[in-house]
Amino acid sequence: MKTVSVTIDGIDYKIVGDRDEAQIVKIAKYIDKKLGEIRSAAPNLNKVDASVLTSINIVDQLFENKEKVEKLEKELKSIKEGYSNTTEDVEKEFDSVLKKLEVAENKASESEKEIERLKKLVEEKEKEVINKKESNADANKTDEESEKKIKALEMKLKDMEKKVAVAESMATEFQNKAYNLQLNYEELKNKK
To answer: Domains, the chain, ranges and CATH?
Structure first.
């Protein structure tokens, strides 16, 4: 198994596979190109929708290749049935059809692998979206709790301000009484 780093739609991925690095990079570039075409054609699509649409297009190509494979298999069957003798020309034609069939099957296999990879990519993107929604919900909950705490503290502050105002009023009243008592004391003292 080889690990190859590739970039698709600006995101780095590590791909593990049996294919050689050049082939993996080629597949990643193909997906990136197809995804870029989709995003250019429909710039308002989000990443998940663009990935899904790209997957659909690649699957469409896969099915088209499968139809070609089936057509080649039918041609091969027709050639086999059409020639009863095994001549050199028939063998060459047969080899040619087999090569075409092998190429088509390889492309179909690559497309199937690519579809699986894209499905995983779509699942990852969907998980990211869910996680972001959950994070936003947690942030909103934290904001609400903070607002409640702030309001409770503001209410305590107002209550304390009222108590301070009452205490100041009482202190002023006490000072006035003390001053009056001192005046009375001075008067009494002077009268003696």
So the answer is: 1-45 (3.30.160)
